[in-house]
Amino acid sequence: MDYIKRIIKEDDHCYINNKPDMLLFYATSALIITSIIFSYSLSIYTVTNHDFSQFHFFVRQAAVGIVGISIMWFMSKINPDKFIDYIGTILFILFLSLMAVMPFLPDALVTETLGARRWVKFPGISIAPVEFFKIGFAYFLARSFNKNLLTKQKHLKAKDEVKLYIPYIILIGMLVPIIAVAQKDFGQLVLILFMTFIMLAFSNRSYRVFALLGILSILGFIALIIAAPHRLNRVYSWWSMVQDGILSIFPESIASKFRLDNLPEPYQVGHSLNAIYNGGYFGSGLGEGTIKMGYLSEVHTDFVLAGITEEIGLLGLSLVIFTLVFVIQRIIRISRRVENAKYHLFTLGIALLISIALLINFGGITGSIPIKGMAVPFLSYGGSSMLSLCIAIGTVLSISRKMPKIEKRYS
User: Fold this and answer.
1) Is position 411 within any domain?
2) Which of 4, 1, 3 is nearest to 73 (CA)?
């Protein structure tokens, strides 16, 4: 106990601004509470279908939420200089190693769904290692870019510039079979790559090589989609819904070459859009939605935004989205103001993980992009996503204590 007190109670001179960003803490806690409420409201069909208690998901999400909020509060009280390297390194190495061996673990230790091995079983719980790995990967990139990229002069020869990227290309190449193939989680790979490229853009490197890597990544994405029938079917399903609108702006001679018939129906997106439409401005009332009654499986997970909209309306959804955007804005504010380059890149990476995941999910449930099966940060049911994000926010809160104070001016 004395050791914990010594960690929390640091000398004031260790910090530039000795208080964490409490607005970020409160906004994140509000999202967690919202998730707990809707884990109960939207899970009625699932608990009935599996003969669970009606409070099955509520109790689990509430327990995870309480632990998550406690983690954020505790981490906000300690000096990031004394723990961020340990936390980041452990998350990166431990969960990368765990993901690498998951395909070879016995079935008793791994949960497999439709051929995807994404969860490791522990007594009483299952965790998704990729959720924790993403936080560790953001730290790894921040530390590595700060050490290996920011310190190098910007205008290097193309050959020398490429050499700087080779270790990262190899690492990403390792992640493709681990995440996209073994776990069949293409959405997480897309999220990680988007985060990597944007962090690279803030690392003061040549845009020529950056653009070349981007083109190669796009070609790699296309190859992965074509190689997997289930991904190709998702693209076809999405195209069946949007092709008329997109092709209407082209002459018929061109449109006819891209119009496809007998495509799979976008079943999930159709019901998702119906739920959003039925919600109107004010919603049908908490607990009164119908999308959760078997039209969409487990709406409290990937389609939670559609379920929320149906029950509390577009105005309620706007408030939820505003809170999420506010969280992202506070993290970006910390990233811009903190003076340590490693902390700047890490907090930027966390903001990107949250914002890109939100965009991918929202685009999927509205039919703007093919469905990726991406959880909504802080809102979708799931302990791994919630706890990993709380660790991330706790670290950001700790880093926020390093921001320079803004002197108040009085007239």
Assistant:
1) no
2) 4
Query: Residue 362 in contact with residue 346, Cβ under 8 Å?
Result: no
Q: Encode pLDDT of 311-331 as tens digits.
A: 999 999 999 999 999 999 999
Is 266 part of a structural domain of the chain? yes
**Can you tell me the distance from the alpha carbon of 95 to that of 93, in angstroms, rounded to the nearest whole number?**
6
Distances (CA, A) of 83 to 125, 147, 322, 399: 26, 18, 31, 11
Q: Which residues contact 195 (CB under 8 A, 6 or more apart)?
A: 134, 137, 138, 141, 349, 352, 353, 356
The residues with which 110 forms a beta bridge, in sequence order, are 120
**pLDDT tens per residue, range 114-148:** 667 788 888 778 899 999 999 999 999 999 998 88
Taking CA atoms, 109 is separated from 5, 101, 132, in Å, by 37, 11, 18
- Count of domains in the chain? 1
Cβ atoms 173, 372 nearer than 8 A: no
Put simply, whether the predicted model's pTM sits higher than 0.85 gets the answer yes
Write the pLDDT tens digit of every residue in 142-165: 999 988 877 766 666 767 777 888
Distance CA 307, CA 284 (A): 11
Both structure tokens of 306: 């559609």
**Cβ partners under 8 Å of residue 145, min gap 6:** 199, 200, 203, 345
Q: Residue 42 in contact with residue 304, Cβ under 8 Å?
A: yes
For residue 126, give the 3-state DSSP assignment.
strand
CA distance 286 to 276: 14
Q: Domain span at residue 188?
A: 2-400
| 383 CA to centre of own chain | 13
Is residue 405 one of the residues assigned to a domain? no
Name the DSSP letter for residue 265: P
The reply to whether 406 falls in a domain is no
Strands 116-122 and 125-127: antiparallel
